[in-house]
Design brief:
globular; alpha/beta; 274 residues; two-stranded antiparallel sheet
Length: 274
């Protein structure tokens, strides 16, 4: 199965990193010598994706610009014989980048919907900007392998990345209710989803993190879901609506996740990945 497209919703304001993010998008903060967003694009490339759509807000144009060609700089590097730097700049030359805007911050589902007309791949990968997974395989490689084990021509499922999270942090996650009889190892069949439950109400300790493979039907469900959760359109609401219509799976990924959406998580990622 070939996944050809990925959507990267990166329109958020990065308020936890103010005042730095007044001028530099959070996704361009460096880990080592590359920004966070480049690690996510590289993750998409790790499964052969060559079409990437950034969902941005006004003022975050520097995110896609990072990946665009700069002929004058390339010419200067060539003249100075800095071919290793030139090679690094050319690594995204074959990738087709697309940009759409999310003008109003109305939730993660609303962000994804901005790319609905662009989406042709089925399934399409969704990579949110805060979650980095370090391990022998990228998070998306693991999701793709799990997806291939359950997908069929007649029915395309959804696949979500799952992580075992402490109960005291349940209110930060969507939590999966697992059909144990239809699950095997790290691959879980999901029979229910609960958004940010109280610890005592959570059906499991498996929380959804920001990596998904979703079929086109999920976009249709998003369009019909309407606003909830303080006026937001949420991806989890669309998936809950689809539970009776499509199979939804989760994969408890291997490796270490870094949440770069918080200063503490970003600092940890810099220390260990930089």
């Amino acid at each position: 199965m070939q996944i050809t497209q990925a959507i990267l919703p990166v329109a958020g304001l990065g308020t936890r990193f103010l005042p730095w993010t007044k001028v530099v998008p959070k996704e361009l903060l460096p880990i080592g010598n590359v920004p966070i967003i480049a690690r996510l694009v590289d993750e998409a490339l790790s499964v052969g994706i060559e079409e990437i759509c950034f969902v941005i807000s006004k003022g975050k144009e520097s995110i896609p610009e990072y990946f665009y060609a700069m002929p004058e700089l390339e010419k200067e590097l060539q003249s100075r014989g800095k071919l290793h730097m030139l090679e690094e700049l050319h690594r995204y030359a074959s990738v087709h980048f697309h940009v759409v805007y999310q003008h109003d911050m109305k939730g993660d589902g609303h962000a994804i919907l901005q790319a609905k007309d662009w989406m042709k791949s089925e399934p399409v990968a969704i990579l949110f900007g805060d979650d980095l997974i370090a391990g022998s395989k990228t998070g998306l490689q693991q999701l793709k392998e799990a997806y291939e084990s359950v997908a069929s021509n007649g029915s395309l499922p959804a696949m979500l990345a799952l992580e075992n999270v402490p109960r005291e942090k349940m209110k930060k996650y969507g939590i999966a209710d697992i059909d144990q009889a239809s699950s095997k190892g790290r691959l879980k069949r999901i029979k229910g989803l609960v958004e940010k439950p109280e610890p005592g109400d959570a059906p499991s300790t498996l929380g959804i993190v920001g990596k998904y493979l979703i079929p086109r039907s999920t976009f249709d469900a998003l369009s019909m879901a309407g606003a909830s959760h303080a006026g937001e359109i949420r991806l989890i609401d669309a998936l809950i609506k689809q539970l009776e219509d499509i199979k939804i799976y989760g994969y408890e990924f291997e490796g270490r996740r870094y949440d770069t959406g918080t200063p503490e998580g970003y600092k940890e990622a810099v220390k260990e990945l930089g």
